[in-house]
Amino acid sequence: MNLAGMRVIVRRDLHDEDANNYRWTDNEIDRHIAHALKDYSEAAPREQKATKTTTSGSREISVSDLTDRVMVEAVEYPAGKFPKCYQRFSLWADTITLLGAHVPDGSNACVYYGKLHTLDAQASTIPAWHEDLVVTGACGYASVEWAAFAINRVNTGGSVAARELLAWGSGRLAFFRQELKRLGRQGRVRVKTLYMPYSEPVNKTTDPGP
Asked: Where are the domains of the chain?
């Protein structure tokens, strides 16, 4: 599905299909789709792998060229081993620092990361089974935005129309966020090693004194 196709579905769900009297402009609909897509990408980013050349004697690896990066999941070094050799690491800004026993010698490392999904005039990277979820989020954002805009404005449906649209949109957003939480990488239990930033363990048997 491309952006135009998703826009059509969002308008259909919002009952905003009269081209001569749209409630939302195309630009507004696209903005709400982009908002929902960003939220979705944070919960379920597009999985990517990048091969990076290390610097001999340096534990630092720059990831500044990994555009639209949401997170870094794992770092493999040295690359190409079986089983794979994953390293503990910390990430600050655009620099990964390896914290394991291996000091890079200039050979390759592999960085496993997540990036924002794309949705444009040609295609999208959203899995087909999650397209309706992004539509739900976009509808929720559009409804809440219009309800806020309608405050203290005259409309043919009266003040009740804005309240009902706000309630409907809030319900859509609640469902959207609930599903993102269920899908989210932070809420999943994984049978694997988690690569958290390193810190020295606290020795509970030593009395540091006064």
From this structure: 3-43+118-183, 46-115
